[in-house]
Design a protein that fits this description.
248 residues, Purple Acid Phosphatase, chain A, domain 2, alpha/beta, six-stranded mixed β-sheet, 2 domains
Length: 248
């Protein structure tokens, strides 16, 4: 069995038995996919450890792609290995980060993964914590209820893929003739973003790349998170937040 859900932001209450009773029939060979903003690797503290240990104790294997709210400095500390045909980072023995631009074969189905997303809550800027007036800027913006983040504390430029990751994604899709069963992302293609935001969401290099994938790829379903809703768009695009759905 393979299930999928949306952003967890480091809170995994939806995987309690009462909320997700299907797990009683699952084993380590069954999977739950999180479509970005996993948030379980944040500051390396006790909360992270408790959360990851709780996930590791579940009967299933947890898979996730990166979102925009991830600590990419901490994620970079984990080694990369091969798994089911693609590259992963093993956060716990049964908690796996599926890297960007990869294609995995799981139970006879192919999954293309492309994590990442542009933060919507940075309209008032990204603060540099090493700046001499950082504290003054920080508290001024806090008093204004401004939308800002702090570099390497609550925001990382790696929230959007690098050119190398885009290149590897295209190379891997070329290898399979741009044909996969499922696409798992955090962001949506630009045309889907327009439907969701009714013009309120901006395009960016990732949404534009995903639009290319949408136009070129042959796929059955596309599952994504990021926009904090549960909706089906144009039949094949499934936006997930707190809902858990069975994929196969």
């Amino acid at each position: 069995m393979i299930y999928a859900t949306g952003d967890t932001h480091g809170g995994f209450q939806r995987f309690e038995l009462e909320a997700f009773p299907e797990q009683s029939q699952m084993t380590r060979d069954d999977f739950v996919l999180i479509c970005g903003d996993f948030g379980g690797v944040w500051d390396g503290g006790k909360k992270d450890k408790r959360s990851l240990d709780t996930l590791e104790q579940k009967p299933f294997t947890t898979l996730f792609v990166s979102g925009n709210h991830e600590n990419f400095d901490k994620l970079a500390e984990y080694p990369i290995e091969e798994w089911h045909g693609g590259k992963i980072q093993r956060i716990r023995p049964h908690v796996l980060h599926l890297l960007r631009g990869q294609i995995f074969e799981i139970d006879g189905y192919t999954f293309f993964t492309m994590g990442g997303g542009r933060s919507h809550d940075i309209e008032d800027g990204i603060l540099d914590p090493s700046a001499p007036d950082f504290e003054e800027q920080y508290w001024t913006l806090r008093r204004m209820n401004a939308m800002f983040r702090v570099n390497h504390y609550s925001w990382w430029k790696q929230e959007l893929p690098s050119e190398k990751e885009y290149a590897q994604a295209r190379q891997n899709l070329d290898r399979v003739g741009w044909k996969v069963d499922y696409i798992i992302t955090h962001s949506a293609p630009s045309s889907i973003v327009d439907v969701l935001g009714e013009g309120g969401y901006l395009h960016d290099p990732l949404t534009d790349f995903l639009e290319e994938v949408k136009n070129r790829a042959d796929f059955h379903y596309w599952l994504f998170g990021h926009y904090h809703d549960n909706r089906i768009i144009s039949d094949r695009f499934v936006l997930l937040w707190e809902q858990i759905v069975q994929v196969v």
